[in-house]
Design a protein that fits this description.
single chain; alpha/beta; two-stranded parallel sheet; elongated; disordered C terminus
Length: about 210
C-alpha cells in the first residue's frame, strides 16, 4: 500500500497531482499498465478540486483502458473516523465547509452506514431538534470547525481534524471493484451538490 497527499488551502491540485502520481508509481516500482482501476472522490467539495481530480481520473482510466470507481466524499471521511466511544444510538456527520452558514454532510450510524442523505445543511435549531432521539451526535471533519462556540448540547461532539485522506479510499474502492461497480466514463461528472456561484468583483464607478 502507498499513498501521497498534500493538505493545502492554496488550490495546488493542478500543479501537484500528476507529479505525485508519477512519484508514487516510481516509489512503488510499478508501471501504469499494472493498474487495474482508477478511483476518485466524486464530491461534494471544492469545485476546483473536484473538476481537476475527476478530469485526471477519467483521463487516466481512458488512457489505460481500466474502469473508473467513484467514492462519495462523506463516505471516505466517515471511513477514516473512529469515535472514542462505541455508543450504538449515535449519528455521525462528516462535514465539509460549503461556505456561508452551510456544510456538506450526511448522517451515518455507528456502523458507518448512511442513514441521512448527502446535502448542503444549515446547522440551525431546527436541524439540531431533529436529532434529539440520538444519545450521541458527532460533527466531524474540517467543516465542523465553524460550529465551535455555537453549540452547547452536551451530547454533541465536535472534532474538526482533517478526514479527507486517500488512505480511507482503499477499502471502499476495492469493495466496489470486486462488485464491478464502475462509472460510465462518457457521462460521469463530479457530485457538486450545489451550483457554482462565482465571487463578484467590486467595480469602481467610472
Amino acid at each position: 500500500m502507498g499513498f501521497k497527499e498534500i493538505k493545502s488551502e492554496q488550490f495546488v491540485h493542478g500543479e501537484k497531482l500528476h507529479q505525485m502520481i508519477k512519484d508514487l508509481v516510481n516509489e512503488k516500482k510499478i508501471s501504469l499498465s499494472d493498474i487495474s482501476a482508477i478511483a476518485v472522490a466524486s464530491g461534494p467539495g471544492s469545485f476546483t478540486g473536484l473538476r481537476i481530480g475527476v478530469a485526471s481520473a477519467k483521463g487516466l482510466a481512458y488512457a489505460l483502458n481500466v474502469p473508473l470507481i467513484s467514492i462519495i466524499t462523506t463516505d471516505l471521511m466517515v471511513a477514516g473516523y473512529h469515535p472514542k466511544k462505541n455508543i450504538q444510538n449515535a449519528i455521525i456527520f462528516p462535514m465539509i465547509d460549503a461556505r456561508r452558514n452551510e456544510v456538506y454532510t450526511a448522517g451515518y450510524n455507528i456502523e458507518k452506514e448512511i442513514i441521512s442523505a448527502v446535502n448542503a445543511q444549515i446547522i440551525n435549531e431546527e436541524f439540531l431538534t431533529s436529532l434529539e432521539k440520538y444519545d450521541q451526535i458527532y460533527f466531524v471533519g474540517e467543516g465542523a470547525s465553524k460550529l465551535y462556540g455555537e453549540i452547547k448540547q452536551s451530547n454533541i461532539v465536535i472534532e474538526s481534524f482533517h478526514l479527507n485522506s486517500a488512505s480511507s479510499m482503499i477499502k471502499l474502492s476495492y469493495n466496489k471493484f470486486l462488485k464491478n461497480q464502475f462509472e460510465d466514463l462518457a457521462y460521469f461528472n463530479p457530485f457538486y451538490l450545489k451550483d457554482f456561484i462565482p465571487h463578484k468583483k467590486n467595480h469602481s464607478p467610472t
